[in-house]
Amino acid sequence: MNALTRRSLDGRDCRYCLGALLSLAVAAGAVAYGLSNQDVVTALGGLLFLPPTVVFAGLGLRGPNVRDRD
Predict the structure, then answer these.
(1) 47 vs 32: CA distance, rounded Å
(2) What is the pLDDT of residues 12-69, one digit of tens each?
(3) Angular region, 11: left φ>0, alpha ψ -120 to 50, beta rest
(4) Among 1, 29, 57, 65, which residue carries the largest CB count within 10 Å?
(5) pLDDT at site 2
(6) Quick one: which of 9, 4, 22 has its CA closest to 64?
(7) What does the pLDDT read at residue 14?
(8) pLDDT score recorded for residue 17
(9) What DSSP assignment string belongs to 8-59?
(10) What sign does the dihedral 21-49-34-30 (CA atoms) show?
(11) What is the pLDDT of residue 66?
(12) How far apart are CA 29 and CA 66, in angstroms?
């Protein structure tokens, strides 16, 4: 089984969860950096990473597709 196509036992795809964690870390870092340096544009720009975080988490935590079932 290829490491890129491997899924956990309950059908969740952990590659998307990893992307969600990475984008959440970037968002948190940008907001923290912007607030600590009084840079509102950077802090608000960091919030733009939150929608992809939600999408990646939703894709990774959902069960297998109907097409994936055999």
Answers:
(1) 11
(2) 667 888 888 999 999 999 999 999 999 999 999 999 999 989 988 888 777 666 455 5
(3) left
(4) 57
(5) 53
(6) 9
(7) 74
(8) 83
(9) -TTS--HHHHHHHHHHHHHHHHHHHHHHHTT-HHHHHHHGGGHHHHHHHHHH
(10) positive
(11) 47
(12) 37
Query: And the tokens for 57?
Result: 């988490």
Give residue 63's identity as a one-letter amino acid code. G
For residue 53 the two structure tokens come to 């975080």
Total residues belonging to the chain: 70
Task: Tell me the two tokens of residue 45.
Answer: 């720009």
Is pTM beyond 0.90 here? no
**What are the residues whose beta carbons fall under 8 Å from the beta carbon of 46, sequence distance 6 or more?**
26, 27, 28, 29, 30, 31, 33, 34
CA dist., res. 46 & res. 25, Å (int): 10
Phi-psi region of 6 (alpha: psi -120 to 50; beta: other; left: phi over 0): beta
